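Consider the tokenized backbone below.
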């Protein structure tokens, strides 16, 4: 009925509450990624075997759980008054984040 697990140093507990409880976007896990290789790794692992891509770094795994695979540099790029809006416009068109495209925005 209960499972305890650790992801990236963070501990979680899951409870089998029955069919009446479904996953939805109200709960998601954020994976901060230091580089494109890390983004690609998590992204493709999560959408494999029945997962689905979403917009702006969101995806769902094969169980329907929502994840946000986000570059750690995003906050810095967004806070720059010169190009923050361009960065936002660039990532609104993305599914999986492309760090190089964000830096070039």
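A designed sequence for it:
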């Amino acid at each position: 009925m209960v499972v305890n697990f650790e992801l990236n140093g963070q501990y979680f507990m899951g409870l089998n509450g029955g069919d009446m409880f479904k996953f939805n976007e109200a709960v998601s896990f954020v994976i901060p990624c230091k580089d494109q290789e890390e983004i690609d790794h998590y992204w493709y692992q999560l959408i494999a075997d029945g997962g689905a891509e979403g917009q702006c770094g969101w995806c769902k795994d094969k169980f329907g759980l929502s994840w946000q695979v986000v570059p750690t540099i995003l906050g810095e790029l967004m806070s720059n008054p010169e190009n923050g809006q361009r960065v936002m416009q660039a990532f609104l068109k993305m599914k999986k984040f492309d760090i190089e495209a964000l830096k070039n925005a």
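The mean pLDDT is 93.
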